[in-house]
Amino acid sequence: MRITANQDRCVGAGQCVLVDPEAFDQNDADGTVIVLRPNPGTEPEIARAREAVNVCPGRTLALVEES
Ligand code: SF4
Where is each 4Fe-4S ferredoxin-type domain found (predicted)? Predict the structure, then answer.
């Protein structure tokens, strides 16, 4: 699984950081998302990644299967 982030859509709301501060951070300058852990491996990591995708108000994040 891989987390993708479309920076153009990020509104800097920080909901992803609240869900999983080990996986997401925000750019100091403009608040846009920084993906710290783009490849969640364990079930809890994947579950939190899914939650972050769901709560993101900008529809910035996606969780995609790696081929
Ligand atoms: S929740 Fe979405 S819009 Fe907000 S900082 Fe994270 S990626 Fe950006």
Answer: 1-29
CB-defined site of ligand 1, < 6 Å: 5, 10-16, 26, 33, 56-58, 60-61
Amino acid at residue number 39: N
For 53, the token pair is: 């995708």
Q: Is 36 helix (H, G, I), strand (E, B) or coil?
A: coil
- Domains of the chain (ranges; CATH) run 2-64 (3.30.70.20)
Counting atoms of ligand 1 from 1, which one is nearest the CA of 17? Answer: 6
Give per-residue pLDDT as tens, 7-63: 999 999 999 999 999 999 999 999 999 999 999 999 999 999 999 999 999 999 999
Q: Give the Å distance between the CA of 26 and the centre of ligand 1.
A: 8
Could you tell me which residues are beta bridge partners of residue 21?
none
